[in-house]
Structure formats: structure tokens, C-alpha cells
TrEMBL record:
Domain EAL: 23-274
Domain of life: Bacteria
Residues of the full protein shown: 464 to 737 of 737
Lineage, highest ranks first: Bacteria, Pseudomonadati, Pseudomonadota, Gammaproteobacteria, Alteromonadales
Protein name: Response regulator receiver modulated diguanylate cyclase/phosphodiesterase
Organism: Pseudidiomarina planktonica
Length: 274
């Protein structure tokens, strides 16, 4: 009989190769689909809890497949980051966001803020703030209409560099939010050192709003944010109970399936016209 560790080696080895091949295949398909303009940017409304009014939208990438399905960004974003493709794709997402803001204004729609996710490699490209500023100017978009969502992993990678870039971004009037707040288990000290506007409470905390310990953590985060003069947005609100709870906490803003799923830009414009 085979030794069990050998057996697991025999089994593991080919599957790792397959996994690598599958990833390489995905990256090359992503590269060609991006070049052929097959990626889409969808938008998920963000609402003011007190009034239910739509005050912003988060830009979210979508990669449609021939069969009508979508490959999740949770799958392809890490590959785009790893391959470096995210730098170009991210710049394109920012451009699409600016185009939408320009169109909202041309249509006389409410002045939404559009939030865009920024990856580490993108954030670290040379002259990121200056290039971004040039894009805004090209579309005649006021900097306070665009919010950058950065994660704790960006901050932790090089806190001083990040502080410098954020100061340059803020000096143009751009808004900055910390995304997935609390999941990185990182030091909280950066929060007070960086020029931030908003803190997005991760969905995993929102899901625990039904437990006593979950509420203690949420209330601590919201209180801390408010004392530091930051706005708070709760992510992944799915139920009326969750919405009521965050409204009661005076957590100003929320995003989640309860209000709206991510949708193509056209649908968002139709929704805003109503
Ligand atoms: P994220 O930035 O945390 O975005 C929020 C995710 O939560 C989105 O998933 C959104 O569709 C989902 N979501 C919103 N409300 C609810 C809800 O009520 N319940 C549940 N279960 N989920 C909700 P999505 O679109 O699949 O994106 C996944 C992640 O991919 C994003 O997480 C973000 O990290 C990344 N991503 C998406 N677009 C971009 C992009 O343009 N650039 C970069 N760098 N990353 C992106
Ligand atoms: Ca985000
Ligand atoms: Ca998030
Ligand atoms: Ca998340």
C-alpha cells in the first residue's frame, strides 16, 4: 500500500499545475477581453439612511462571459493585480466613472459622488494623483465628485508613502474612504494620521449586528469614526432590521442589496430620473 503522504503528493502535484494553467488562461482572456472593451463598469447606489436618498454610487467591475454569466471580481481582480493588468484597468474604471459624472450633470441628475476602488499596484504608480487630476480635468469633473476607496492593505504597505499620496490627492479636493474597515486586523493608529473622509464598515460586521458582541464592535467603530470627524457608511445592508439599527446609530450612509444591487450605468440613470 502507498504511504499516505506520498499519495497526497501524487494527488496534489498535478492539481497545482492545473490551477496555475487555469489562472494563466484567465489572465490572457482578461487581457484580450479588456483590449476588446468587453469589461463593464456597473454602479451600486449608496443612500443616506435618514432619507433613503441616493447620494452616491460605487463603481464595480463586471466581466461578462459568452454564455451570459459573469466572472466575479473577487476572482479576477487578484489576477489583474498579480499580472499588473490592474494598472490599466483601474485607470479605465476611473475614466468611466468620470464619464458617468459628466453625463449625470448633462442630464441634470442629482450630483452623485462616485466611489472607485483603487488597488495597491495602481496606487503606487508614479504620479498617480497628478494623472488622476488630469483625467478629472479632461471630463470637467470636480474632484469632490469622485471618492477613492482604499483598503487597509494599501495603507499598511507603506504608511508614509500613502500619507504623502493622500495629502496630494486631498489637496485637489478628492474624497478618500477606507474600504472593508476592520477586516485587516491592522493597527488603528493610521486612522488618525491620514487625511480620510469616510470609513466603510465591512459587511462581515454588518452581518453580526444581530448579536450583542457584534453590536459592541460596530458601535465602537461608529463612535470612533464620529469622534475623529469621519463619515461612516455601512456596507452590505440586506435587511430592514440592519437598516433601522444603523439609522438609529446615526451612521449616515449605507449600501446593500436592500436598497439596490450593482447595475449598469444606464439603469442607474433611469433610477435617478424617477
Ligand atoms: P468591495 O469593494 O468590498 O465591493 C462591495 C462588494 O459587495 C461588491 O461585490 C458588491 O456587489 C457586494 N455587495 C454589495 N451589497 C451587498 C449585499 O447587500 N450583500 C452581499 N452579499 N454583497 C453585497 P463585487 O462587485 O463582486 O466586488 C467584489 C470585490 O472586487 C470588491 O469588493 C472589490 O474589492 C473588488 N472590485 C470590484 N471592482 C473593482 C475595481 O474596479 N477595482 C478594484 N481594484 N477592485 C474592484
Ligand atoms: Ca469598495
Ligand atoms: Ca468593501
Ligand atoms: Ca469586501
Amino acid at each position: 500500500a502507498k504511504n499516505s503522504s506520498l499519495q497526497s503528493f501524487d494527488y496534489y502535484h498535478p492539481s497545482m499545475e492545473e490551477e496555475t494553467l487555469r489562472r494563466l488562461d484567465l489572465v490572457s482572456r482578461l487581457r484580450s477581453d479588456f483590449a476588446e472593451r468587453k469589461l463593464e463598469v456597473w454602479f451600486q447606489p449608496q443612500v443616506e439612511l435618514e432619507t433613503g436618498r441616493i447620494i452616491g454610487a460605487e463603481a464595480l467591475l463586471r466581466w461578462p462571459q459568452a454564455d451570459g454569466s459573469f466572472i466575479s471580481p473577487a476572482v479576477f481582480i487578484p489576477l489583474a493585480e498579480y499580472s499588473g493588468l490592474i494598472v490599466e484597468i483601474g485607470a479605465w474604471v476611473l475614466e468611466e466613472a468620470c464619464k458617468e459624472v459628466q453625463q449625470f450633470d448633462a442630464l441634470g441628475l442629482p450630483e452623485l459622488r462616485v466611489a472607485v476602488n483603487v488597488s495597491v499596484p495602481q496606487f503606487r504608480t508614479k504620479d498617480f494623483p497628478e494623472r488622476l487630476d488630469a483625467t478629472l480635468k479632461r471630463y470637467n469633473v470636480a474632484p469632490d465628485r469622485i471618492e477613492l476607496e482604499i483598503t487597509e492593505s494599501i495603507v499598511m504597505e507603506d504608511p508614509e508613502l500613502v500619507a504623502d499620496i493622500l495629502r496630494r490627492l486631498k489637496s485637489t479636493g478628492m474624497q478618500v474612504a477606507i474600504d472593508d474597515f476592520g477586516v485587516g486586523f491592522s493597527s488603528l493608529s493610521y486612522i488618525q494620521k491620514l487625511p480620510l473622509d469616510r470609513l466603510k464598515i465591512d459587511r462581515s460586521f454588518v452581518q453580526n449586528a444581530c448579536t450583542d458582541s457584534g453590536r459592541i464592535i460596530i458601535e465602537t467603530i461608529v463612535d470612533m469614526a464620529h469622534r475623529l470627524g469621519l463619515s461612516v457608511l455601512a456596507e452590505g445592508i440586506e435587511t430592514e432590521d440592519q437598516a433601522r439599527y444603523f439609522k438609529h446609530l446615526k451612521c449616515g450612509e449605507a449600501q446593500g442589496y436592500l436598497f439596490a444591487h450593482p447595475m449598469p450605468a444606464k439603469e442607474l440613470k433611469a433610477l435617478l430620473k424617477q
